[in-house]
Amino acid sequence: MLVHLYFANNSVRNTTISCDSLGIHYTVSKGDKIVSLSRWDNTTNSDMVVGEFELPFFKKDRIKVGPDGEWQPMRDYFDKPGMLSNSMIFTSNNGMKYIWKDHWGYLIMTHSDDKEPLIKYHHNISKPSYLEVFDSSIITGLDTILLTFLIAERKKRDYEGAAAVSAAS
């Protein structure tokens, strides 16, 4: 079953991510310096924070996974596949190992040992952006999958912005 998770806008710091047909609803919000990801819990009728991250300019990046998680450096949370790679390997809350990587301008997620995309991000300007989920079995790991997606996409945008500035000078 193909699932689309739609973004209310093109921000990865202040937006909602949802699939109404499956009752999936996440809120991304940026406070002073910390970006939080919350999931709507229909049993309690409230938002539950599932993770947070901080990408400070002069300090080390850090992440907190889960509602009761501890802050940790991102370099301790993500595995790096290679010295020159921008890919990010992580273990989701469903226990599976995944990797976010840039594939011809699209951010995709695969199993860490596979090439077939499980998720592909479609970044659009004139219509809503969305994550296309090819394997619905990964929905059980959505909390950490979305948290790590937000980090991977933010880093990709920062990298592209720095490259554009460098090319212009």
Automatic annotation (TrEMBL):
Alphabetical list of InterPro entries matching this protein: DUF6593
Ranges for domain DUF6593: 10-158
Pfam annotation, one family: DUF6593
UniProt name for this protein: DUF6593 domain-containing protein
Organism of this sequence: Serendipita vermifera MAFF 305830
